[in-house]
Design a protein that fits this description.
The protein has three helices and 17 strands. It has 295 residues and is mainly beta.
Amino acid sequence: MTPCRTHARRAIGIGLLVPGLLLAQGASAHAEPPPLKSPQKRALPKMQKGSESRPAPCVHVVQAGDSVIRIAARYRVRRQALIDGNRLARPESLRIGQRLDIPGCQGAPAAAVAEPRAPVARSDGTLLVSAGPRRVPTRFFLGVPEFNGRSIDFTWPVLGPVLSGFGQRRSGWHAGIDIRAEVGTPILAAAPGTVYFSGWERSYGRIVRIEHDNGFTSIYAHNLQNFVEAGDRVEAGTVIGTAGRSGRATAYHVHFEIRHEGKVYNPLYLLPARDVVLTGAEEMPEPPEDDDEDE
């Protein structure tokens, strides 16, 4: 036997055996390797008709301060579609942690935009700016609004001089007005509606948010106490809390905002006319970030 054939047969044997193990009884070193099996084809799962064109639904987890109106504006869907799609019997009473399907959602929410470095003019007549201590992207409507008969009547939440106006300030953009009030002064609901949040928010401190008819909301912040809870129905003039300086504030006052369908408006254009004189404290001092409380 030639050396070449010997090495070839040894190579065949090595292919059949694990090195160091003896051949099993009856096995031959000359046996041919078993034929390879052709791979089996796996049946792919059948897609349901129309599923290839149906977008995956978005799910929003309710957080503090959320409302149906704000969530709908964030994802650019209709408020009623959000209510109907989730069968919300009491849309004014969302629960923190509640999961909501967003009907017709095609991607990331509109709120997930980069912080604008400079005001950006939008086609709806608003400016997209970074507002407040946390520089939240917010749509400001700076002119006199026209709601085509859908406006509602607002009253002053407290009577006092306006410390800081709406719009641009030296330190940034301000989404409401600050009204001076002695500590403990009753805060009144500015219009009939339903409380959709009452609690604590970073920077705002103790805050009450009320949802009104025709897509309006009002906000009352830096409170000493809140007397209402989410789901409470209030009338114009209902005492909802007392004035304080909780959160990022040093002077006692009420921070008051009016919003409509995701935009902020100058409350002075929507409140009853009265002599309003800025006290000169347009730049209210703010404590550093680490002064924020947490309940």
